[in-house]
Amino acid sequence: MSQTLNTTLLIIGGGPGGYVAAIRAGQLGIPTILVEGQSLGGTCLNIGCIPSKALIHVAEQFQQTVHHSQGSNLGIKVAAPTLDISKSVEWKDGIVDRLTTGVATLLKKHKVQVIHGWAKVIDGKTVEVGDQRIQCEHLLLATGSKSVNLPMLPIGGAIISSTEALAPKSVPKRLIVVGGGYIGLELGIAYRKLGAEVSVVEAQDRILPAYDGELTQPVAESLKQLGVKLYLKHSVTGFENNTLQVRDPNGETLSLETDQVLVAVGRKPNTQGWNLEALNLDMNGSAIKIDSRCQTSMRNVWAIGDLSGEPMLAHRAMAQGEMVAELISGKHREFNPAAIPAVCFTDPEVVVVGKTPDEANAAGLDCIVSSFPFAANGRAMTLESKTGFVRVVARRDNHLIVGWQAVGVGVSELSTAFGLSLEMGSRLEDVAGTIHAHPTLGEAVQEAALRALGHALHL
Description:
Blueprint: E1 3-12, H1 16-27, E2 32-36, H2 42-47, H3 49-69, H4 85-109, E3 113-116, E4 119-123, E5 126-129, E6 132-141, E7 145-147, E8 159-160, H5 162-165, E9 174-178, H6 182-193, E10 197-202, H7 213-226, E11 229-232, E12 235-240, E13 243-247, E14 253-257, E15 260-263, E16 267-269, E17 283-284, E18 287-288, E19 301-303, H8 314-328, E20 342-344, E21 349-354, H9 357-362, E22 367-373, H10 378-382, E23 389-395, E24 401-408, H11 415-423, H12 428-432, H13 443-452
Parallel strand pairs: 1-2, 1-6, 2-3, 6-19, 8-15, 9-10, 9-15, 10-11
Antiparallel strand pairs: 4-5, 5-6, 7-16, 12-13, 13-14, 17-18, 20-21, 21-24, 22-23, 23-24
Helix pairs in contact: 1-8, 3-4, 3-6
């Protein structure tokens, strides 16, 4: 070993959880080293959340331009549009570069030492990176997750993962998406809007099986309007000569010709390749088991984000990372959020915060469930987006709100209001009595609460 470094906090992984933990630790004066083998920002900034939303925006803009070239109700007419996907990818990469550069700047500002390389855990106090050995008092594991692969569909050539899908050199004429969850549908819809013929193969009996049927129905209708073909209750058996073999519900084999296959069947904790086994930690399935303070079964070894299991969301990792830094500094904290928003950036978007009606019922709660449709919302009409609704779930006895859901264009931005109302312990009367700006989509939040109280104003 060329040298041995000593630090209070050593973080493995520079994704949203790791870099936020490092920044907060730096702010608190904790000597911190962050080890990252690839690019700062992790999956989210480089090959996940940010680039996918950029591609979704490009696809939406292109589709709208195509729509206007055919003559729209708005009276706009443009010449036949063309797409230069290389310029689109360049624009997307520019956003990613600005964000990752910003993360590096913040880490430097707060005196966090960043070491680029692959970590190998020796024990709970020692990590090797190349020819460097690092000794620490606290070890924070934040290695994230990676795509689940299917043995019969090895990535390569015509078979791609979300990573390749986010950096296309061209738009395929035909694309089959294996997996009808949020990643598969977000990218599948984007590629359809970019001009590809898209089919989705899903083993479950409906799309977005993690969400309830009422929420996903508008998305299913949108897929039909876009011309996306759905093969529900179908399982993949193989791929050969540009043909995907799938088995239908009756056991019959179908041959689906395609130019590319996007495998998007989920993600799993990234536990391999850095000698995690040396720690012999308690596990929760494939994830590291943690308590309410993100402590593992080994003293002063912490785990956050996707590595610690569901929900695998960047904002959960960020909140956990901030908390761990504060715990190490001596503050008293516990990770016990009232709710963690889940957003699906399909067309239309889907938001779930807190308990759904089914979850409330399963918890033995007697609840009022009330929805307000965007078809009765003035701002939605001006956005040509009348599909969807806002739904509130509240206890019948005291009107305490336990959950919010929404489906519609742009509803991801309502997730903050939903989360805040749950964290603040709001009741229906609190939201109904709050003046909401007009005209906004947010008025549907107030109207849903008013309707639950029996006096919606615009329905």
